[in-house]
Amino acid sequence: MEQRKKEIIIEENKGIFSIIWKNISSEKDLFKKVSSLKSILTDEKAKLLYIIRTKKPDSLYRLAKELKRDFKAVSKDAKILEKFGLIELKKERTKKRKRFTPKILIDELIIHIKI
Q1: Bridge partner residues of 23 (DSSP)
Q2: Buried b (16+ CB within 10 A) or exposed e, 85-100
Q3: CA-CA distance, 29 to 56, in Å (whole number)?
Q4: Tens digit of pLDDT for each residue in 39-82?
């Protein structure tokens, strides 16, 4: 299986750090502030990624149960990780509800800091 990577480059420019998110497979760049990097590098999101990778929950509800966290908080964190391309939330319809199944999109996150 091909290794899926995402690269983050932090560059200093005239006293301001900026971030370039690079999806290595598609070469798309996304420029963000350093604060956006801090929003994904939290212990809660690390645990969320770990549970998705190891337990493969079939819904955000089951993910929240595994993490012993509030569903809304887990949903918010998952949407942030999806925005930055680390996970995918696959939408499925059950009888009367929509279910989002979290899937890991990368195997490795590489961070470079250029000063």
Answers
A1: 6, 28
A2: bbbebeeeeeeeeeeb
A3: 29
A4: 778 889 989 999 999 999 999 999 999 999 999 999 999 999 99
Q: How far apart are CA 40 and CA 79, in angstroms?
A: 11
Given the structure tokens 């000063």, which residue do they identify? 115
**98-110, pLDDT tens digit by residue?**
999 999 998 888 7
Range of the domain at 49: 5-114
CA distance 38 to 19: 11
Check residue 94 and report its DSSP letter: -
Under the banding of pLDDT at 50, 70 and 90, the label for residue 111 is: confident
Pairing of strands 28-33, 5-13: unpaired
Its pTM stands at 0.76
The residue written with tokens 């999101």 in the block is: 45
Helix or strand run (H / E) with residue 85: none
The total number of structural domains that make up the chain: 1
* CATH number, domain containing residue 71: 1.10.10.10
